[in-house]
Amino acid sequence: MTTTLTPPPEQKQEDRKRVRRPRAARAGGTMHAGPIAYVILALFTIGSLFPLVWTAIAASRDNQRLAQTPPPFWFGSGLFDKLELAWTDANLGEAFVNTTFVAGVSAITIVVLSTIAGFAFAKLRFKGRQAMMLIVIGTMMVPPQLSVIPLYMMVAKLDWSDQLQAVILPSLVSAFGVFFMRQYLIQALPDEIIEAARMDGASSWRVIWHVVFPAARPAMAVLGMLMFVQTWNDFLWPFLVLTQNGNPTVQVAVAGLGRGYTPDQSLIMAGALLGTLPLLVVFAIFGKQIVGGIMQGAVKG
Amino acid sequence: MATRHDTAAPPTEEGGAAPGRPPKDGAPAALDKRRARLSRRWQRDMRWSPYAFVSPFFLLFLAFGLFPLIYTGWASLHQVELTAPTDMNWVGFRNYTRIFDDDFFWNAAQNTLTIGIISTVPQLLMAMGLAHILNYKLRASTFYRVAMLAPYATSIAAASLVFVLLFGRDYGMINWVLNQVGIDNIDWQNDKWPSQIAVSSIVIWRWTGYNALIYLAAMQAIPQDLYESAALDGANRWQQFFHVTLPSLRPTILFTVVVSTIGASQVFGEPLLFDANKGASGGSQHQFQTLGLYLYEQGWVNQHLGRASAIAWTMFLILIVIGIVNYVISRRLRASS
């Protein structure tokens, strides 16, 4: 990045054009952004973060203040009281334990199963591989809403309502995970390493344990985080099979907060904030890796 | 290749054979037998373990994806009550005729379409623009990317609840801002178009940053020399964007359109929570009731699971039609280029 091309003012029109060319050629990735770009970015950043910040502001005010114009722009003093009230009112402690368990078990299982299946699709030759991969991609197109009713009937038959396995089991089907790991392993795992392990007499399972898992570790971490976020935020299905008083996840508990004839808005905001905060903290810490992971999964999508 | 690979096969005992390799000494007959057994096991392993590796996914998919999908079709031909979901009475296609006669079904279908368009089109256009900007050399580029992904980390429930307040008619932030520029209070919940715009804005807010990152990834994968040769041909920045960037992104754009279409066809949590006191009706006049919400209302409020199944299958068929149209269009596009 040593060449900054600003043509000297005394150059003629013709020369200037020629100097400019290489500059235009870099438009695809290495060109510096102008002030307008920064303004647009700033607007979008504010737009992205403002509703989150305002959730905290609204949670720190009481209902009377929220029913006035202009709306509050800065924090009041009641934030921690409201958070505490929401915590006890919605039974959020239990909901957090439940959601962490559900999201954790789902994420880990999906990651392990997807890595193994993704490895088979990426590196092993077997009959029907192409067709099976097409089916996997096809299942990504089927909206989960379509299977909700029979699943609900299953849950009713098995007497699983209000029980966490009713949420965990259906969430384990992740075609995206298989696809994601396949894309990663195709380029990240050289065939020679597998060959070498085979030469040493390693069985397929040993190859998975000693070669595939170590090679896939970065992608596994990213997929795990994505799946954790997805399961944590899942709404429709938990909402149908879990109740607020049974065994709620955070989303179910938050959705039922402060209802009634005059809903307590600031209490609702406090609950919404508590339900979001853990993931925001994770994003603040691992943001770079998550961004990288999403972008990695996108290429060749 | 003369270097020793200490890590691959550490010298163990005398002889230094790697573990698992058949021993070199021993009677030739026994060795042969052993070799044969090993190679048979080896062949079995090579042949069948791929299937073992992919089977967990397919078993789970059968149990929680395919079977429910087909069973939904079966249930749609029956009368099933929510209170006794295992009692099914055959009614043929009556569930379908009932919903096709219901004005609220067509209302919901229309709302799903308009909310889908209002939420998807601006979202993808803005994502494209953002990706283009993020592709410049930026200071603190990671910060912008993470900040734009924050809505993606926010759940539908939390986002919808906040937007309800921001869109409040009397005391909401958005109406207050509009007041400052001389626009009267808008009833974001009860008027048809404002309510649909408000519901769509929740979707847009949550997904724009995510799609921008996907476009950005695809942009970064475009070979640099394409731009260089375009520049040599005298293309300016805009022409480069339209003649190099957009064509290269075509598969990615198609992918995001398909994913967003599927997402838009299922919008549920946002309209449910946008006016939670009205239950699942999607506003006092059903003005923002989507098909997903209508399905929920029929199944879980009116307790007709059979009718809800018929709605689900109708949605599925609509999606298949959209998929086919999409496929035809993309083939046309590919053929024309």
Description:
- The complex is a heterodimer of chains A (301) and B (337).
- Chain A has 14 helices and no strands.
- Chain A has 301 residues and is mainly alpha-helical.
- Chain A folds into two domains: 13-81, no CATH class; 85-298, MetI-like fold.
- In chain A, helix 4 crosses helix 14 (265-298) and helix 5 (92-123) crosses helix 9 (175-188).
- Mean pLDDT of chain A is 81; it is low at 1-29.
- With 337 residues, chain B is mainly alpha-helical.
- Chain B has a domain at 102-336: MetI-like (MetI-like fold), CATH 1.10.3720.10.
- In chain B, 70% of the residues lie in helices and 3% in strands.
- Chain B has helices at 28-75, 94-101, 103-134, 141-153, 156-166, 173-180, 192-220, 224-232, 237-265, 269-274, 291-301, 305-336; strands at 78-81, 84-90.
- In chain B, strands 1-2 form a two-stranded antiparallel ribbon.
- In chain B, a hairpin with a 2-residue loop joins strand 1 (78-81) and strand 2 (84-90).
- In chain B, helix 2 crosses helix 12.
- Chain B starts with 27 loop residues before the first helix and ends with a helix.
- The interface between A and B is large, with 114 and 121 residues.
